[in-house]
Design a protein that fits this description.
- The complex is a heterotrimer.
- Chain A is mainly α.
- Chain A is built from ten helices and two strands, in the order H-H-E-E-H-H-H-H-H-H-H-H.
- In chain A, helix 2 packs across helix 10 and helix 8 packs parallel to helix 9.
- Chain B contains eight helices and ten strands.
- Chain B is an alpha/beta fold.
- In chain B, the strands form two sheets. Chain B has a six-stranded mixed beta sheet, sandwiched between helices.
- Helices cover 47% and strands 16% of the residues of chain C.
- Chain C has a six-stranded mixed beta sheet with strand order 3-11-2-12-1-13, sandwiched between helices.
- The longest helix of chain C is centred in the N-terminal third of the chain and has 22 residues.
- Classes of the chains: A mainly alpha, B alpha/beta, C alpha/beta.
- The interface between A and C is large, with 44 and 54 residues.
Chain lengths: 268, 257, 364
């Protein structure tokens, strides 16, 4: 029974994707034949799905034309992912202790909260100009860090705060010291929330890296790739790059969900 | 050992008197039930005995030692189990010894002992969400015991269970308690439960909570719930409690008027 | 969490960091071209973030004057007399403007006059020299007159379009696979020469040469027309346009210049895509490679929206590879980062050609 509904759902998923691609194709063709165009859009400039596919296949691997050496999509994915992971790990290392501190101690909360409340409302992209001037290197990693650290801090605070007060009482009567309460109760109790923060953070970080790579340029990275292709008027490659960004972001989200399922067995 | 003494204990919350001048003693190895209408401060009394709350007036002693700060010599059993959801049954039971720095082998031995005692064999590696209510409370009791407390504090531990499981668990609790004999202070609002379990039943009055009457239960264990002595005592307690409940309800009506 | 999961986390994190370190090693150590604005090129060369840059004047002159770097190659060293910026018009505008040919004739004439003026004024003894330096500083965004002097030195201002040079560019761009092959097939051009001859016409410059002695007002359009003009940010190559504008010569021939939306553009690729393609630029100046590339790649051939025609040259040469003090050859740039204005710009193609000559690889 359940299997059947699942299968049905999958069929609908696939049909929906196929219809979207067909709709895309038709809209581009209609616009190119000057039969119909979506107002205020230049649909005719969009590559068709097939052109996009060829562009994707064509730019999958490294190419050498004369002196020119162009990185393949895989190099770009790797470069962007590495930046996101570096920024994300840094954000995790800093964000979790800060979040636990704020969640646990009123004093730390009062000290840090005003700063965090203001800074977290500055979108990662707003930091790009500053990052260009302040940082000698690692600007895009810094932008990712900004994107990831606040969801982690906020979720950690939430996780710590939403720990059942009676669980802490129980731990106290069982002889736990304050340090043990933090290490053995608050952190494990907040763990699912921290992972959720990590997941949200990586989503934000992924968007931020692509934006950052468009401005803080380096030779490789997906943001750089789509911007470069746009500059060259290679719209099919650009759209292919956009799709890759979406797919990689999706896979990243799914992977963190899997990690969460693996490590947090105790949630229903 | 495990003698709990309450001397003139009062507790005010924001000017509202929740517990008023309670004098009570739980003798070493004695099983005392606190019985009373809701809002009579039963839980507050337990929390004070555990050192999780402090009296506004009066003092509490465990074995002549004044209770100040968290009392690590008690085992607390909660109504909603309050297990550590990220730990398995075994992990929950080992929590107390682990905090004390007991070595791994010794912890294993302790948890194995209590898993056997409370009848959790085969469920050691289950997480709390995988266990039924009765099983969870077995873990709760084992966890409290594993910390080798002098006094067991139980706050309506079977309140969330269905009637059948509750009867079963009462029997189980007595079985365990008779094996590992320590003093117990047990909060309930079920007269039946109190008469079945306790050596003494303390009826509390409501608003503010104060000791109204103390009944000795001189029925030898194992008790039969429907025996004439049990019935008689139950009626007596119910009468005493009934007036209290009426009073509590009356004041509630007054508030709502 | 048990120990296995802790170990797993450590392994994953270590693997990811190992991946980061491995990332640093790139095959064959190409020179990495990274797009940036001219101001960034100067600043980052100063801080040592980049080992060099290839830019249009005045950025090299400013960087050299500030002592941030030294010239490694003038673009003349890479290719003597190569074409650079041109004046181009939008086909859409042309088809919808009754007297477009008359207007373009006069645009070419002002270009001719401005170039002649600049070439005279470049001589330090010329009475107009001080004025020219002021124009350069204003248009090039310079505060230092010696930078302005320097920036004018390696630029050859011209009015004639360079068809053979454009052919060479087209074949280089084909060799470097910058064209979208699909679009190139749609365009229908047989080869580089065919394309160059479709792109460029000499007739407006011919008219201008014929009328060079005439008083401007005597050949003015009967009715003043407004032209939305696009040009590049601080590009000294386009100084002839600025001089003509400031001297009032466009107005004198009946052309009212307004800045097209988006002007000044960050690079020629932007001017093609945001300006000409969207029909918001009527006439503009930009590098010939963006024109060559985007008339193919960005074009929607059903409406030919990225089609532009070149009416005159602007300048030849005038770009420099500026490098930090410790760099003595192009090979020294291997594995290092070099700033450039963006893919498909003249500087991009020139740098590729330089690397080709030196047998080096360039990633972009």
């Amino acid at each position: 029974m359940k299997n059947n509904t699942e299968r049905k759902g999958l069929v609908i998923n696939i049909l929906s994707l196929i219809s979207f691609v067909i709709l895309w194709h038709i809209l581009v063709l209609l616009a190119r034949e000057q039969i119909f165009n979506i107002p205020f859009m230049k649909m005719k400039d969009l590559p068709t799905p097939l052109e996009t596919w060829y562009a994707l296949v064509g730019s999958m691997f490294t190419h050498t034309y004369g002196p020119g050496f162009t990185y393949g999509i895989f190099d770009h994915i790797k470069a962007s992912l590495v930046r996101v992971v570096q920024g994300g790990v840094l954000a995790f290392i800093i964000g979790v202790p800060v979040g636990i501190g704020i969640g646990y101690s009123r004093l730390i909360h009062n000290i840090l909260n005003p700063i965090i409340e203001i800074v977290r409302n500055m979108p990662p992209m707003a930091w790009i100009p500053l990052a260009i001037f302040i940082l000698v290197t690692g600007g895009s990693i810094f932008i990712v860090f900004i994107g990831v650290v606040f969801p982690i801090i906020l979720n950690t605070i939430y996780g710590v705060r939403s720990t059942d007060a009676r669980i802490i009482d129980a731990a106290r009567t069982l002889g736990a010291s304050e340090a043990q309460i933090v290490a053995k109760v608050l952190i494990p109790s907040a763990f699912p929330s921290i992972i959720a923060g990590l997941r949200i953070g990586f989503g934000v970080g992924w968007m931020a890296i692509v934006a950052a790579e468009m401005v803080i340029q380096s030779p490789v990275g997906l943001g750089y790739f789509i911007w470069n292709m746009g500059d060259l008027g290679r719209y099919a490659e650009m759209v292919a790059g956009m799709i890759v960004i979406g797919v990689v972001g999706y896979i990243m989200n799914i992977s963190i969900l899997l990690v969460q399922k693996r490590f947090v067995k105790w949630v229903d | 050992m495990g003698r709990l003494v309450l001397k003139g204990v009062s507790r005010k919350f924001n000017g509202y008197l929740a517990v008023s001048d309670v004098n009570l003693e739980v003798a070493d190895g004695e099983f005392v039930c606190l019985l009373g209408p809701s809002g009579c401060g039963k839980t507050t009394l337990l929390r004070m005995a555990a050192g999780l709350d402090a009296p506004t007036e009066g003092e509490l002693f465990l074995d002549d030692k004044k209770i100040e700060g968290v009392n690590k010599e008690v085992g607390f059993v909660f109504q909603e189990y309050v297990l550590f959801p990220w730990r398995t049954a075994k992990g929950n039971i080992e929590f107390g010894p682990e905090m004390k720095g007991v070595q791994k082998d010794e912890r294993e031995r302790i948890s194995q002992h209590y898993i056997d005692l409370v009848g959790l064999k085969g469920f050691e590696n289950h997480y709390p969400h995988e266990l039924s209510g009765g099983m969870k409370q077995r873990v709760g009791i084992a966890r409290a015991y594993a910390n080798t407390p002098k006094l067991l504090l139980m706050d309506e531990p079977f309140g969330a269970l269905d009637a059948q499981t509750r009867n079963l668990m009462q029997g189980e609790l007595l079985r365990i308690w008779e094996k590992e004999h320590i003093s117990a202070l047990f909060v309930t609002h079920s007269v039946d439960e109190a008469v079945y379990l306790a050596d003494r039943v303390v009826v509390l009055s409501a608003g503010p909570g104060a000791v109204k009457e103390i009944f000795d239960v001189n029925i030898p264990r194992p008790r039969v719930r429907t025996s004439p002595e049990a019935n008689a005592l139950r009626n007596e307690i119910l009468k005493c409690l009934g007036a209290e409940i009426q009073r509590a309800a009356g004041s509630e009506r007054e508030i709502h008027r | 969490m048990n120990n296995i999961s802790k170990t797993l986390i450590v392994v994953i994190v270590t693997a990811l960091f190992a991946g980061c370190i491995e990332q640093q090693k790139t095959p064959d150590q190409p020179i990495n071209l990274v797009k940036m604005s001219g101001q960034d090129m100067i600043q980052r060369l100063g801080t040592g973030e980049i080992a060099g840059f290839i830019g249009w004047e005045p950025y090299p002159a400013i960087a050299i004057t500030k002592g941030y770097g030294k010239p490694l190659f003038y673009s003349a060293d890479i290719w003597k007399g190569h074409p650079c910026c041109v004046v181009a018009y939008d086909y859409h505008w042309y088809n919808n403007t009754r007297n477009a040919d008359d207007i373009l004739n006069r645009m070419a004439l002002v270009q001719l006059k401005s170039v002649e003026y600049i070439n005279n004024a470049k001589e330090s003894g010329s009475p107009d020299h001080a004025d020219l330096i002021n124009y350069s500083m204003a248009f090039g965004g310079m505060t230092n007159s010696s930078a302005a002097e320097l920036s004018l030195k390696d630029v050859q201002f011209v009015y004639s379009p360079n068809i053979p040079g454009t052919e060479t560019f087209i074949s280089k761009i084909m060799d470097f696979k910058i064209f979208d092959s699909n679009k190139w097939n749609q365009s229908g051009y047989k080869n580089a020469s065919d394309y160059a001859n479709h792109l460029i016409t000499n007739r407006y410059v011919d008219w201008a040469v014929k009328n060079r002695e005439n008083n401007l007002s005597s050949i003015a359009l009967k009715e003043t027309v407004t032209i939305r003009y696009g040009y590049l940010l601080n590009d000294i190559h386009e100084l002839p346009f600025y001089v003509g504008w400031q001297k009032g010569w466009f107005r004198a021939v009946g052309i009212n210049i307004t800045m097209a939306p988006g002007t000044p553009f960050e690079n020629g690729a932007f001017e093609m895509q945001k300006g000409f393609k969207t029909n918001s630029v009527d006439i503009g100046s930009l590098g010939i490679p963006p024109v060559i590339i985007h008339r193919i790649n960005s074009n929607d051939f059903s409406v030919d929206d990225a089609r532009v025609g070149v009416i005159s040259g602007m300048n030849n040469e005038g770009s420099i590879i500026v490098v930090a003090g410790n760099i003595t050859s192009l090979a020294d740039l291997k594995g290092k980062t070099v700033g450039y204005p963006g893919p498909g710009t003249i500087q991009h193609v020139l740098f590729l050609m330089a690397a080709d000559n030196a047998g080096l690889k360039v990633s972009y």
